[in-house]
Design brief:
With about 300 residues, this protein is of the alpha/beta class. The protein has one domain: P-loop containing nucleotide triphosphate hydrolases (Rossmann fold, 3-Layer(aba) Sandwich). It is built from 14 helices and 6 strands. The strands form 2 sheets. Strands 4-3-5-6 form a 4-stranded parallel beta sheet. It has a two-stranded antiparallel ribbon with strand order 1-2. Strand 1 and strand 2 form a beta hairpin. Helix 11 packs across helix 12. It is globular and about 50 Å long.
Length: about 300
Amino acid sequence: MDYLVKMSTPAEKAMATGINVDLVMIDGFVQSAMIMDNLKRLKDLPIRGDDIYLCTYPKSGTHWTWEILNMIVTGKAEYAKHWQNSAWLEYRTKEELEELASPRIFHTHLRPSQLPDAVWNQRCKVVYVRRNAKDCVVSFFSHFSKQIWKDSTLGKHIYTGSWDDFIDLFLNGWLPGGPYFEHTFEWTNLSEAHKDSEICRLQYEDMKKDCVNEVRRMAEYLGRPLSDHTYQAISDACSFKNLKHANEKIKDQTYHVHWQDGSSGYFRKGTTGDWKNWFTVAQSERFDKVYEERLKETFPY
């Protein structure tokens, strides 16, 4: 990647490496150009006290958890009408977000410091899901290297570079979803900036092992306890197979991202540990070294 030295910004370097999306630098980090205006207005977004925020790094079980939260709020295992993109905090306009009925269940890939200040001042409910970083990067690569937006004028997949270069883009924080390490560090150390904030922390792998228990934890955190039967029903309805079917065949497609024919959807495998089928020993060791340096912890998987 020596040819990238001549590029002036990480956003330009990422696009030169094979990211076929317009990228810009916002507050020192790479972001998709299409959300630049929304991010500028976000700090002053009007907040309701009963708003719920689902916060994840991309490819960390966002669709899954958002659907679970909606079922907890309604108290029954019925799918929300729209795709989660209808409530994507940084991609919807202020007017679109205002039209959502309370309690609004937003989802976002933003860091705590990027959220509206009122989220913390009004002590809104916040659910944070973390996932094994190596599974994240595999899912991210698969998503970007197989998708072509239906209205894409380039007619190219979102990413056309190599797997090895994609790992470096992830480690450098040059992907459109923002920097993984800064995102994880801020959420992991949230109490330093917001000492009085109580959030619900979840681990993707724990949700895969015992979804019923994690659904219960979310419901109790939201102050909306349900019966054991309902917890099981929600877990079943939100299994990978059932949720994939619902998103493709049942739910309203208004806010669904449309892909050209032959592109895969959001749902790939929904498994844990698939990274072992992708990483070489050298790539894994390179990843572990950066992971441990940036997060001050040993890679746990």
